[in-house]
Amino acid sequence: MSAMNHSVAPLLEALADYHVRDRYGFTAPGHRQGRGADPRTITAIGRDAFRSDLLATAGVDDRKSSHGYLSHAEQLMADAVGAEQAFFSTCGSSLSVKAAMLAVAGGRGDLLLSRDAHKSVVAGLVFSGVQPRWIRPRYDERLHLAHPPSPRQVEAAWQEHPDAAGAVIVSPTPYGTCADIKAIAGICHRRGKPLIVDEAWGAHLPFHQDLPTWAMDAGADVCVVSVHKMGTGFEQGSVFHRQGDLVDPDQLSACADMRMTTSPNVMVYAALDGWRRQMVQHGHQLLGAALTLAGQVRQDIDALPGLHVLREEFLGAEASHDLDPLHVVIDVSDLGVTGYDAPTGCARTTAWTWGSATTAGWKPPFRWPMTIRPPPG
């Protein structure tokens, strides 16, 4: 990380200054910071949400963005994680991954894609006309889940489709399992082709050494993260990062800008900005506490009759390369019930809040991603 000043949060501070000055804009949104909103809506949502619902351009900043609040925040984000470029999205990682796909393969044919790709990847194929060359993930018949593709599978896909424009993989998966990104990036780079990693569940990875290596450190060219999943951003808050010379930065920015809303919500931007500052200043401590708590949770749950916390089953030559231990995945098959019958009432529940990790147990205000797997059959 460079000598940039990470004690500042330009978007967050600009929003606070807007409130201090009690400014009144003459552009959208039409609710006029809640003045025109239905009182019943105010009661349900709260007036502060409307007060902060401002445009980033022609709102907090002027119509030319001459103060550069957003660009400064994006530069700080890139610096915080060691990327060359960061782009904020208020349309979620669904926009970010489409922009990356189009920047790499738009008008140029094929992409190697892991079959466990997100809906947004499939939508990107439909909209762009890019042809998928599918890589089958490693499917665990006993646990009923897919592991990321192995380097060997990616190599085989390149041999079969050598003219593809690049490759897209998902890592971590929603179960916390991770691909061998370094090896896969090397395979792509030997052909002069970029690797895009849909790392929606990995926004926290750069900030603690005991977590799996995040995609950019492992050599990925573009990495997409959802800060609302494993960070403290609002829903729809996403960032994609770029490095190296295999993806044109101007093309990538243009692909994102053309698909981005022209009315981005500054609250989403400001939350991304504030989270970056929090992670630089306190992320190692917060994640260390979370890892300690997760380790205790894993141990306590595994000691309960009929419950088994999966770890070793996820790792190995025919499984995943690494595992994010903050995802607690529980096999309930010894109880004779399915995940749908388990007390959570669903097959998979995920929750995450930053709070004080205590040894008192796994109770609010601190929760963690939990997955309950149904038994086979």
How would you portray this structure in words?
The strands form 4 sheets. Strands 1-10-9-8-6-2-3 form a 7-stranded mixed beta sheet, with helices on both faces. A 4-stranded mixed beta sheet has the order 11-13-15-14, with helices on one face. Strands 4-5 form a two-stranded antiparallel ribbon. The protein is 35% helix and 15% strand. Helix 5 packs across helix 6 and helix 5 packs across helix 10. The C terminus is likely disordered. The chain is globular and about 60 Å long. It is built from 11 helices and 15 strands.
Q: How are the secondary structure elements laid out?
A:
Elements: H1 10-20, H2 39-45, H3 47-51, H4 69-81, E1 85-89, H5 92-105, E2 110-114, H6 119-128, E3 131-135, E4 138-140, E5 145-147, H7 151-160, E6 167-170, E7 177-178, H8 181-189, E8 195-198, E9 222-226, H9 227-230, E10 238-242, H10 249-259, H11 266-302, E11 308-309, E12 322-323, E13 328-331, E14 348-349, E15 370-373
Parallel strand pairs: 2-3, 2-6, 6-8, 8-9, 13-15
Antiparallel strand pairs: 1-10, 4-5, 7-12, 9-10, 11-13, 14-15
Helix pairs in contact: 1-11, 4-11, 5-6, 5-10, 7-8
Count of separate DSSP helical elements = 11
Strand order of the largest sheet: 1-10-9-8-6-2-3
Mind telling me the C-alpha Rg? 22 Å
Gross morphology: globular
- Biggest sheet architecture: 7 strands, mixed
What is the β-strand count? 15
Strand content: 5-15%
Task: Give a short synopsis of this structure.
With 377 residues, the chain is α/β, with parallel strands linked by helices. It contains eleven helices and 15 strands.
